[in-house]
């Protein structure tokens, strides 16, 4: 395929693009125009660049490709949630979700094709990791959802969460580059504080993010605060224990002063007892935080089951009585398998 052989123009920095035009005997400012087309205006092909001459467009076509994502299939849930199956230039597919609420429209985006982490309750884990997404593939998912927000809801996109497929901290460089573009005036000009990155808790990378001075929010998929149980459902815990996680989070808080959100599912027979709730409360004391008690979305085989309302309320009461903000979060888009952990369920 031709597009695979040519360089993706969005791999070039503005300076490299300037150098290209100068080498062609053209003006450097041409690069600025093209840069605006490929990022700010998200052009999908060179013919959209109508302020460039036909000859310039031809030079670009001869030298570069724009490997834009392609929304292959869009499903709408009865609650308004939209799930996109996103086809990448090499034919692989990821998913991204638009979640509308009363005062927000949130884009939930993927960072990898598949995932290497093997969390026992997550559908994406069953796909295995195929590759990292490039910065522009992450950016394009946001652009697509931004357009859908305008088209279907007549409202702007307000928030972005890295809670789609993959582990963002195992594709750190590309995720950061995408966020830089998303927040830059040359890109989508969105506020960093509207962006949340969710991780299983790769401690080394949490420290790196703190050192890098990132300005977005951090969420950690905790799900249990006792090592033995957490390791049994999230193998990452074997090498990144709760003690190491707590240390990394203290470091994060010390450097960023941003409180962390813990995502937590309560499952029948796994963590629905008071012992586990108390362990969570103890973990919450490490740094300022809040807890989202998220509904479990079944993924076919029924090994995991949502705990009773009583158990979930017990958790919420214990946390709130001790000054920790804890919300019970209902799932969105369940009927189209767009809810947390369901991405890739039916592929
Ligand atoms: N790898 C990152 C990003 C994925 S976010 C992370 O784990 O944080 C997806 C969120 O959905 C995580 O909090 C994950 O633990 C949660 N999740 C996975 N499977 C789920 C399921 N079946 N039901 C509810 N939440 C699930």
Shape: elongated
Count of discrete alpha- or pi-helical segments spanning 4 or more residues: 11
**Rounded average pLDDT:** 93
- Which regions have little confidence, pLDDT < 50, spanning 5+ residues? none
- In angstroms, what is the radius of gyration? 22 Å
What is the N-to-C order of secondary-structure elements (H for helix, E for strand)?
A: HEHHHEEEEEEEHEHEHEHHEHEHE
Biggest sheet layout: 10 strands, mixed
The count of β-strands is: 14
Tell me the number of structural domains.
Answer: 2
CATH topology assignment of the largest domain? TIM Barrel
Strand order of the largest sheet: 3-4-5-6-9-10-11-12-13-14
Level-1 CATH class name of the largest domain: Alpha Beta
Strand content: 15-25%
Helix content: 25-40%
Distance between the termini: 25 Å
Query: What compounds sit in this structure?
Result: S-adenosyl-L-homocysteine
Secondary-structure-based class equals: alpha/beta
Classified in CATH, the superfamily of the largest domain is Aldolase class I
CATH architecture of the largest domain: Alpha-Beta Barrel
Question: What features would you describe in this structure?
Answer:
With 347 residues, the protein is an alpha/beta fold. It folds into two domains: 7-65, Orthogonal Bundle (DNA polymerase, domain 1); 70-336, TIM Barrel. 35% of the residues lie in helices and 18% in strands. The chain is built from eleven helices and 14 strands. The mean pLDDT is 93. The structure holds S-adenosyl-L-homocysteine. S-adenosyl-L-homocysteine binds at residues 121-122, 163, 167, 198-200, 221, 263, 265, 294, 296-297, 299, 340-341.
């Amino acid at each position: 395929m031709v597009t695979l052989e040519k360089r993706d123009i969005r791999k070039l920095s503005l300076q490299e693009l300037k150098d290209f035009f100068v080498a062609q005997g053209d003006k450097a400012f041409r690069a600025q125009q093209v840069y605006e087309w490929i990022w700010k205006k998200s052009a999908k092909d060179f013919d959209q660049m109508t302020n460039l001459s036909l000859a310039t467009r031809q030079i670009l076509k001869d030298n570069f490709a724009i490997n834009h994502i392609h929304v292959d299939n869009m499903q709408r849930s009865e609650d308004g949630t939209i799930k996109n199956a996103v086809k990448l230039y090499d034919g692989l597919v990821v998913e991204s979700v638009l979640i509308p609420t009363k005062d927000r429209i949130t884009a939930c985006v993927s960072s990898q094709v598949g995932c290497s982490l093997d969390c026992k309750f997550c559908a994406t884990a069953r796909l295995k990791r195929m590759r990292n997404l490039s910065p522009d593939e992450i950016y394009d998912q946001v652009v697509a959802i931004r357009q859908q927000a305008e088209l279907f809801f007549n409202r702007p996109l307000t928030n972005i969460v890295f809670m789609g497929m993959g582990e963002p901290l195992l594709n750190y460089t590309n995720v950061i580059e995408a966020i830089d573009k998303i927040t830059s005036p040359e890109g989508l000009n969105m506020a960093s504080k509207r962006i949340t990155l969710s991780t299983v808790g790769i401690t080394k990378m949490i420290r790196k993010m703190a050192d890098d001075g990132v300005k977005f929010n951090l969420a950690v998929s905790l799900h249990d605060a006792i090592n033995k149980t957490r390791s049994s459902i999230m193998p990452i815990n074997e090498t990144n224990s709760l003690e190491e996680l707590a240390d990394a989070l203290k470091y994060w808080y010390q450097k960023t002063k941003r409180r962390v959100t813990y995502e937590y599912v309560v499952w029948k027979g796994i963590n629905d007892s008071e012992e586990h709730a108390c362990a969570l409360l103890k973990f919450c004391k490490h740094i300022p935080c809040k807890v989202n008690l998220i509904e479990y979305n079944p993924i076919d085989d029924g090994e995991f089951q949502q705990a009773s309302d009583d158990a979930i309320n017990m958790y919420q009461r214990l946390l709130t009585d001790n000054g920790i903000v804890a919300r019970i979060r209902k799932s969105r888009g369940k009927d189209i398998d767009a809810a947390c952990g369901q991405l890739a369920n039916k592929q």
